[in-house]
Amino acid sequence: MEKTKKLIFFEGIEDNSAFSFTLDEVGRFVPVKMTVYTLFCGEIYPFVAFEQELASLNQYAFEVSRILEKRWREAACRLEKYRREDPSLSDPLCTPFELRMGAEDNLDMWETIAQDASRQMTALFYSFLERALHRTCLLIDRRPGEERPRYDRSKSKIVQYFSILFGEEWETRSLLDSENLKILEMARKVRNDTMHGAYEDAENRETRSLPFRLTELIDAVSYFLWAAEKAYSALQKDRETTASCRRTSDD
Known about the structure:
Layout: H1 5-8, E1 21-23, E2 29-31, H2 47-83, H3 96-139, H4 157-166, H5 178-196, H6 214-250
Antiparallel strand pairs: 1-2
């Protein structure tokens, strides 16, 4: 049975165990499974905490996708039987037409649930990255007398966090991957529309289909966490070096 377009968003999502490693015949660590996306692995605080949070979100998304696909397939199979007028599904209280209409409504309901879940999942992952970058920026050591940056409401929060981590000219220097930035910008619009209910005004469901898959969004989130960890580590080392030099000169 062909999968509905509403479920393609979740295609490729894996259980967390798929990202484990095992030993091969010669004692080398190899992935348990070749996945189509990656999950971020942190090395320093607070990124080790972000790794755990992202893994929890990934497992949640996997469980939701399993339930959605199971219930959608059950509804689709039941509708197909009613269309064939399977005698085992007859009901003395309803006509075959009424039974078929009820089955179509049930299938439509699960497609709507899948569509709404895809938007809610996008909002969850995007908001997670936004919070993670915000927490990272708050942890950056400031020089004595240096004020914390003020945020411009005309720009997205994540773009402003990038400016703190990668420098004001990060866009012109192409420091970050453009494809992942595009996915992030699309996810931001989906998150905002979802939170404000804007997508409910669409005339038909097809206009609400998302232009990316969840695996692509998780890949983008992981990419930016890796980039942020590297930038955060470099900034902290630079601050530590500066502080050490200042103490030495004072002595």
